[in-house]
Write a structure and sequence with these properties.
Elements (H helix, E strand, L loop, with lengths): L1 H6 L1 H4 L5 H23 L3 H9 L4 H14 L2 H12 L2 H18 L3 H4 L8 H30 L5 H29 L4 H19 L18 H10 L1 H21 L2 H7 L5 H30 L2 H14 L12 H27 L6 H37 L2 E2 L2 E2 L2 H20 L11 H42 L14 H8 L10
Antiparallel strand pairs: 1-2
Helix pairs in contact: 3-10, 3-11, 5-9, 5-18, 6-9, 6-18, 7-9, 7-11, 9-18, 10-11, 10-15, 10-17, 13-18, 13-19, 15-17, 16-17, 16-19
Length: about 525
């Protein structure tokens, strides 16, 4: 736990319970180990693996969509939790199956030989869909457990601290994966990366063997799935929360799955360039900023933060417009600047899941959130892939250029994604309840007041600095002239300080100074 203690000063001074501190540290460390799996089995590695199996743009959209739909299992898992209360058992079983399946994907080229090569991409699709279905057991059980273990008054700081730790592990894992994929030919590099990542994910689950889950809060009345849906959509607080994140999930995933594919197929960048200027640049930005977002959430709530970062995320997509083959600068800028704001959206999503769901029936509410956002994401993945397939020949014939570079079907997709993201933030987010009793306008008014006060303090510090320098110069001149009664001596004239203030443009008698 020593590694976690380097970062957990944000909450160690607040939490006095040693047992709770051990739990918080273990949750953060397990997430760090588990992130090796998800950082290396997504993005460029999965894109390259699927492309090596012959997956086109629509097939890649399908590969991205079906695993997301696999999370519909969370409804069944939440019902099992409420029915049996066996939250830890469901977590362990589902997690072990999921991680084992991801490890097994490394062997697809070997148990599916060359004569059946055309079926490899379908085997990959089935395996990661099954992994996503078993991962549903982990999602509901773990998130509901974190909601009960982490005290609400440090939740923002804790979640951002945990994200800093996972980001560092993701950065190191990305560096290792990029080296392996660029220096090992054929499928051997993918086999190594997926096998090691799957074993890291398995370790993440096994760390919880001796972890004691809190008792599951249970309702005295029977709670069916239909009742859960009715309760969620009857409450304006929960309904608006679900609508916004569904709209945002569609807007984000309409294009997000295709950035790596665009970098590989069109920009012709290497895996090292994609991971270095993509994943690692983003991770560096996260480490630098994420704790400040945690303090922002604890002070103002999530909705005002998402308003700012969501708008920034939408605008940043346009950085891809001047991209040309071999040019990694748009990739670097997109991920470096995006890293500063994406982590705020991720932390806000987790925090809002915990604050917008009831203690009783939380697993079911979380499952409904997962289902709504997963369906939106799956539709977005398939829509984005189909859009690219349909518009590719049209845009190729049109031969459009913008900023002196070809405007292809990928860039058209990115422009539409920008409009969708702005619409989600400006139309649906203002209706979402904020956990702090401040409106978005009041929050930004308070931030503006703090900034004004900060710059006033800087101005005062600058004026004091100027006065000290002027006094030092006057003392030096008096010393040069010599004699205790010299005219330039500070002690020899009562008006010297007044004259000095007038020289600086200040009136010492002005009560406002």
């Amino acid at each position: 736990m020593w590694f976690c203690r380097i970062f957990n000063g944000a909450y160690r001074g607040v939490v006095r319970d040693d047992e709770l501190l051990r739990k918080l540290d273990l949750i953060a460390i397990s997430a760090a180990v588990g992130t090796i799996l998800f950082s290396n089995t997504g993005g460029a590695a999965l894109t390259g693996y699927a492309s090596a199996f012959g997956a086109g743009e629509f097939m890649f959209g399908l590969i991205s969509a079906l695993p997301v739909l696999g999370s519909l299992m969370q409804l069944f898992v939440s019902y099992m939790i409420l029915k049996t209360g066996k939250r830890k058992a469901l977590f362990m079983v589902g997690g072990i199956i999921q991680r084992t399946l991801w490890t097994a994907t490394a062997a697809i080229p070997y148990f599916c030989p060359e004569q059946f090569a055309r079926y490899r991409v379908w085997v990959l699709l089935v395996m990661i869909t099954l992994a996503a279905m078993s991962g549903s057991f982990v999602g509901v059980t773990h998130t509901s457990m974190v909601a009960e273990v982490v005290p609400i008054d440090i939740r923002g700081r804790y979640l951002t601290t945990r994200q800093r730790i996972t980001t560092i592990f993701s950065l190191l894992a990305g560096l290792g994966a990029s080296y392996v994929l660029d220096h090992f030919t054929g499928f051997s590099g993918y086999t190594f990366v997926f096998a090691v990542s799957g074993l890291a994910g398995l370790t993440d689950i096994l760390l919880y063997v001796r972890f004691r889950f809190p008792e599951t809060p249970r309702s005295e009345k029977k709670f069916s799935l239909a009742d859960g849906f009715r309760e969620c959509f009857r409450s304006p607080k929960t309904r608006n929360f679900l609508i916004f994140w569904a709209a945002w999930g569609f807007a984000i995933n309409f294009s997000s799955a295709f950035f790596s594919k665009y970098a590989i197929d069109v920009l012709k960048l290497s895996f090292t360039q994609i991971i270095l200027f993509g994943q690692i640049a983003s991770n560096v930005a996260v480490v630098l900023i994420v704790r400040r977002w945690g303090r922002f959430i604890d002070r103002y709530g999530c909705a005002p933060l998402v308003m700012f970062t969501g708008t920034a995320t939408a605008v940043l997509t346009l950085i891809w417009l001047p991209a040309t083959p071999g040019n990694f600068v748009p990739l670097l800028l997109f991920n470096l600047l995006g890293g500063f704001v994406w982590c705020a959206n991720d932390v806000s999503a987790v925090n809002m899941q915990l604050s917008h769901t009831p203690d009783i029936g939380r697993p079911l509410a979380l499952a409904i959130y997962a289902v709504v956002t997963s369906v939106a994401a799956a539709v977005a993945f398939i829509s984005g892939g189909a859009f690219l397939e349909l518009t590719a020949p049209v845009m190729a014939r049109a031969g459009l250029t913008i900023l002196g570079t070809p405007f292809d079907h990928y860039k058209l997709l990115f422009c539409i994604a920008t409009a969708l993201r702005l619409a989600a933030v400006l139309v649906f987010l203002p209706r979402v309840w904020n956990e702090k009793e401040m409106t978005v306008r009041e929050v930004y008014a308070d931030i503006w007041r703090r900034l004004v006060n900060y710059f006033r303090m800087l101005r005062v510090a600058f004026v004091v600095y100027r006065r000290k320098k002027a006094l030092a110069r006057a003392a030096a001149v008096a010393d040069d002239e010599g004699g205790p009664d010299g005219p330039g001596r500070l002690g020899g004239g009562s008006n010297n300080l007044r004259d000095l203030g007038e020289d600086l443009g200040d009136d010492p008698d002005d009560p406002n100074k």
